[in-house]
Amino acid sequence: MEPVSRPEWPADDGAGEAELFFQRCSWCRTTTIRRLLCPACWSTDLVAERSEGVGVVAPRRYGPTTPETVWPVRMREGFVVRCRVDGPPHAVRPGVRVRLAATAATITVPGGRIVRRDPVVRLCEEAALDGWTRGVG
User: Between vectors from CA 89 to CA 117 and to CA 50, what angle results, nearest 5°?
Assistant: First the structure.
């Protein structure tokens, strides 16, 4: 694979297995996503690689306008990406393991303009109800 100076992502035609590509710096091996420069050494020598698609939900630090289903996910390779988490809201919290389900979810605003394309992940484990619901009924 040849180094690329800018990310070149494959087109998502909706067919086949979900894929997520990230970049690895050829100099310092740091992983990142959707960048022109390595965040550690500022090299432009970034190589695109396919992610395994497994990660962990990270603590949220987004503003109040972020949809409830959008969470940062730390992928096994070390980079963090904003994802839409498909699962019951009570089960989605930092530390929960997730797996890539779809390459991207398109959010459109009135007028048909695409605002953001976030990967979609699903919970790896079955979600149990939290203790606060016990004893009801």
Answer: 40
